Batch of 4 targets.
Target 1
Amino acid sequence: MHSVTVPRRLPIDVNAALHAICSTGKGRCWYCDVKLPPESEALHEGWDVQRIDDQPVANIILVCPHCLRRETASESRKLARFG
């Protein structure tokens, strides 16, 4: 009997992903389109790299600190309403 390996999502290493994307000089926030700063600034400011499974356009997106805070606040409001 052979064991079957079930594919699963691997976690994202945000620092490594930011390093790779910053090296291209072409990254932008998925939500507001602000340009990704140099790597050290992006890490210090709190840029995030997220995986989106339900969007056919992109699998990994960048989120600037402003949109990340707005996204977090929106999720908190939803939980408070329906929690």
Note: The chain has one domain: 14-82.
Target 2
Amino acid sequence: MPGAKLSTRQRREAKLGKVKHSKRYMELAKQTPKGSLLTPEEAINKIKSIANAKFDETMEVAVNLGVDPRHGDQMVRGTVNLPFGTGKSRKVAVFAKGEKADAAREAGADEVGAEDLIEKIQKGWTGWADFDLLVATPDMMPLVGRVGSILKQKMPNPKAGTVSPNVAQVVKDIKGATRAEYRVEKEGIIHCPIGKVSYPAENLQANLITLIGALLKAKPAAAKGKYLKKISITATMSPSLSIDTTVAQKMAEKS
């Protein structure tokens, strides 16, 4: 995978060798070992040493899984609570009634509603798109389904952990930036943030190992052959490094 975070178009062009990196990026690339498999600690420390953007870059992990997402029984999707958070709090709207709605507000939800919120969306309100996540209680889903064709990818989903009877806890996890979502893309890759470059290396490693552990637990029964095929780590504006999958897996299994 390209080191910096790229758009879909850039990723497609990267496969064809068309991506042009900046001079700064190329200088950083000279400082990264080529073809080496590093331990999680080595990779994280190296990324921290070369990340020199004028902002606190996000460290992201890309995991190539031995699955074929075109088959429903090989889809890998879920959430994980990272012990030291992602460093990014997000806006969340909640579909809930009564005490659940009150609890969601107390937990810090940016918008809470039931039939009124659904009606608002049906009438053309586009503000829902400004929220990073939409959460709902199970009893609200028949009503939320009425606007499913509008919400599309942001539709609350049990597999993504956004449909829950305990919406207050979900909101707390989201606002506390401990909750991270992962979903395998059609190429069989999962991208997930594990924190900010400014985090202590041991915190980033703990987040990484927690994520790998969650992916191992989410392994589909239908997946055949090697499951963790490749693990790459990068910061927002840096090249990527490859992590030894065997080492990472053993660490995750022991934690």
Note: The first strand starts at residue 37 and ends at 38.
Target 3
Amino acid sequence: MAYEGRRIQIRGIVQGVGFRPWVFRLAAQHAIGGWVRNDASGVTIEAFGPEAALEALIADLRGTPPPAAQIQSVHSLRIPARLLRTFEIVESEIAADRRVSIPADLATCAECLAEVHDPDDRRHRYAFTNCTNCGPRFTIARAVPYDRPHTTMAAFVMCDQCRAEYETPSNRRFHAQPNACPACGPRLWLADSGGIDTAAPDAIAAAADALRHGCIVAVKGLGGFHLACDASQEPAVAALRVRKRRDEKPLAVMVATLADAERLADMTDAERSLLTSIERPVVIVPRRPGAGLAPGVAPRNSTVGLMLPYTPLHHLLLADAGRPLVMTSGNLAEEPLACTNDDALTRLGGLADFFLMHDRDIETRCDDSVARVIRGKPVVFRRSRGYVPRGVGVLEPFAQTTLACGAMLKNTFCFGVDDTAYLGPHVGDLDNVETYESYERGIERFERFLDTTPTVVAHDLHPDYLSTRYALQRPGVLHIAVQHHHAHIASAMAEHRLEGPVIGVAYDGTGLGTDGTAWGGEILLAHYTHFERLATFRPIALAGGDLAIRQVWRLALAVLDDAYGGDAPLDALALFAEVPAAEVAVARQMMAAQLNTVPAHGVGRYFDAIGALALVRTESRFEGQVALEWNLTADPSDDERYEFVAGRRHGIWELDLRPSVRAIVDDLMAGRSTAAISARFHNTIAAATGELVRSAIDRVGRHPVVLSGGCFQNARLAEGVARDLGPAASVVLHESVPPGDGGIALGQAVVANAIVQAGRQRVSEGICA
């Protein structure tokens, strides 16, 4: 029987997911000789055997990879035959052409969890148990290829038993890079608030006991520290809020099992699937009334963010505590997540009563991801642990390595290399020094993983965004400015591999437009290289600029004065009984004189304004708070809406909600319920959007309709727009890339690449818009 040879190159998420051991077993199954190794771009196989066996091997490689693997491509090349009877896993190759193929961190598998709970197993209650199917990956990686010497596990020398597992092809831990046991791996201890080891014989059990007694415990996880407390004890939750300086923003809750989650929330099959997925995000679900959670977990909020344990440490802690635990980011206010022991003791010393710590270093901080089911499919709101650094394949390969610097809020950055875009982990709001420094280090780390230096740097139009300033400080590159809402739409186009053009509906709070005003309620005809603004919302006057975004009564005042020509019935509205008359007078003077007053077209500002008016909220304590409460207030059974008008103004179509505002005031004065008013307001925005989109289709033709921007984290709005359009349009929503500013860097990257591909700019020509 004639022997042949094949060199098979596989690209994708194929390192750290048990891929080489799986290839080894496949080769044995097909009686094929040769070898497999990691390289800097993925995995390379040289296989020798009969042609039929080789073809069968290639078919299996394409069709049945390990669960955590994601194959982007399989290329096979004929090579001279060699008579090799054995198949080996060989040392990884370091090459100049490297690509990120490190997998995301993987939730603990059922086999490892069974060992952790088995009193007769040598890994009983061992918090760092893992195998090729689970455990830390991205957060411990220091370089590629993904091998133990390139991770923070390099400091731990495997004992004889672990080494035997690592070297035995039939073992589940064959080439599991973080493999360890109590005899040779990382150790865990419980320290007091001053960092002194309590010498507890079982640190996890002692931490669980402290939590049951109302203490706050800082827990070192995969990508950083959590601050944990008993989610059923209101005093503990209240103390955590005071210490963390987090007034009302919802807190994530971790529960031990899916059954425990069911007791707290009403969930669909899609939500159960998302909650138990290998990514283990925080999933926003409807909370059951009387579920037993402390009111302070999510004040005035009918939903709760639930997640399941994703490390043995979390599984053991939840089991020992015997109750749901708040698991919120280990930081103060909007500082970056603490990820080293020393940093945690310094920054969280005044927040936590105890510290559950270990000595496995975290190389890259990575917050928990957050997701929700919309239209029956998962939509990621915050893309971080479990998803990063998984690449997004793009239609047009990047002509040059591209860095997209993202937005000011909810920042992520993005690298575009060859046919893949790599979104970095969630960084947060770039409004303090520590977060900005974390942003810079994150970009440097990705450059090291990719072994590349960008020659194209994309950024937002806004000159005062710190991400823009960072971009413009990088010398010797082509700087490309990308309009905020164009980037939103392009991110969804890239995620779904749409060629364009599309009709883009970009709804958010604020983004600088090409005319120098604040946009945020935009209907665009979008190509990758350019866009046309087809329609927008009538602007709201922001008296005091950004102050109006926090003091939302100013937004309510602006829409009322606009709707009533300055003669709104403020005395009849409960909101304005809460605002000093002198402050109202000053705000009106500012708007009349257009002094420190910015016109803003953002749909998010309308949600804030009407929500403030109806819910009697003078302030927003965190971004989107009032809009979120307004959304959750809506009566799901009410399908009525208010009137609106649309017409051409300044050359484009503009939606005018003044009739709606007057009708809402009438309803408030007549005593109609806020649930009904909220439902009708949502229905109005959905119907108005449908009308604007249908008008756009009449003018520019039938194209896919893409919904993007932070407002489309609102499930009722997204589903309402899709329902209103019905069969008139093919509606596309985000899924694995956030619709908010956390996904905008992907859009910046593909727009910049399209401009470069079109030959519109060269490095010497500087900035283009």
Note: The longest strand covers residues 502-512.
Target 4
Amino acid sequence: MRLSLILRGRRIGSVAAIICVVQSLVCPAALAVEPKQVLLLHSFGRDFKPWSEYAKIIRMELNQQSPWPLDITEHSLVTARSPDEDPEVPFVEYLRVLFAKRLPDIIVSIGAPAAGFVQRHRQQFFATAPMVFTAVEQRRVQYSSLTVNDTVVAVRINYLAAVENILQVLPNTKDVIVVVGASPIEKFWKEAIAKEVEPLANRIKLSWTDELSFEELLRQASALPPQTAIFWELMIVDAAGVVHEGGTPLTRLHAVANAPIFSYDESFFDNEIVGGPLLLVADSGRQTAAVAIRILSGEKPSEIKVPVVQFASPMFDWRQMQRWGISESRLPPGSKIYFRDPTLWEQYHWQIALIVSVILVQAALIVGLLYEHRRRQTAEAYSLQQVNELAQMNRFATAGELSASIAHEVRQPLTTISAAGEAGLIWLKRRVPNLKQARKELESVIKASHRADDILNSVRAMFSHESTARTKVNLDNLVQQVIALAKGPIASNNIAVETNLTAGVPAIVMADAVQLQQVILNLIVNAVEAMSHSDETRVLQVRTEPGPAKTVVVSVVDSGPRVDPEVVNKMFQPFFTTKSSGMGMGLSICKTIVEAHGGQLTASPNNPHGMEFKITLPLHQHP
């Protein structure tokens, strides 16, 4: 609760404790006094705001103000959630049976539905028991039906002042969304608010939420137009019939709303609403408890007149003011600002002094750490350089095996250029030159030259020392390019190639295309070498397929000899090789490259023959 309430509660508690001690010393028999029976009747349930906050204060104040022991019991009128009043009669009978042996010494009804229930059934509902109606708006009380055993601690909600407060702190507001549910009391307040705020019809437009489920309300609140504000009335039962307890609905709305939220009750003033003139829970709770104690002391309820509790001085949440750009100069006179962030010196003056004294000692440690950090960065850069150099060596080691394929790839566009050029000359040498056909052939020359240039650039990049930036790479296209480069060794070893690429699903990753090309090429070359000594049917399978958790998997499977599991466990270790002329660095470099791209490279025996290598890479996520 608020700080003033806590301090006041402590003072009252101290006085009550002293009174109890004195009474116990003067009259020990007082300890044996039978406790007073107090029945709290809730409108919807114990955990529905704002009434749950009123109930907490009333219980606390009763225990602090009472000179007698109290036996407080609580019951809830759950029938208030719907317009059907038929279940009320069994509820009355239940309470009558429950208190058949002894009537409550006093009944406190909390909220308008509970007050209406009591007034409808007063003759059947403990007609002679003293009653206090509290936390109820005065418009919801039938004063003409009050009995001599009834008194009221009412409140007055000034909706016009509440909406005018919105326009004062946010003068550009054009639309106000009034959050109200579908229960009977909420429908009543919808009509009351519309009528009371009618003088502002030329300045704002009111919209209502009683025909929305709460989930629909959340969706709309996340995309409200500019110059919109939200006024939180109640959300007990939404249009879908879902019941909402406690402060969860307001908290959820605050989490998604793109407009400021206002309300009229202090119980909602806890980080979600901006603020303004509010009803103070402590005022009603304290007065209710005082009236109850007076009645328990013997005063007649109908003779106790309590002024209507109205809005207190405006109070605002500094955090919400900062969020919505509300200037302090826009606040009404006499406003109080809560939750203002104190300055660093106000919060931590002695900690700051201690830190300043320690900084000199820490400076030497920081310098040492920076030096070690620099050394580690240098070592990491050197290690990365070594890996890149080894990768470059590995590329050159495969250059000889792929030279025939590279030459074949370059020869194709050169042959096209030659043929198209000769054809173009023929068309130009005719008696009537056919310029259209000549132009077509020249375009073929240009296209083929570009193709040759792309091939040469790709080969140059493959064996260049320069690193390339990571770009979007289509793995399906990359696999096809690598298979084309390795076409020579594949054909010379009578190997059939089976490809199964992702159909209709682009396998796009953010990567260094050259490095990934090297990895896939190494795996294919290794597979070709493994099958070159096999008597089985030689089949190379290359697949791309979706992997778990938004990844893509590239699989290279060969039908070569079965590999010993011990060899599989060691094959990614540096300098481990089963080839007589191998360096033992190819697979180690491949694994390093894949992991640098946030992926994994794994190997497993393929039943009944050969090996299966899998490259798992994260898919590129579109922003």
Note: Residues 1-31 have pLDDT under 50 and may be disordered.
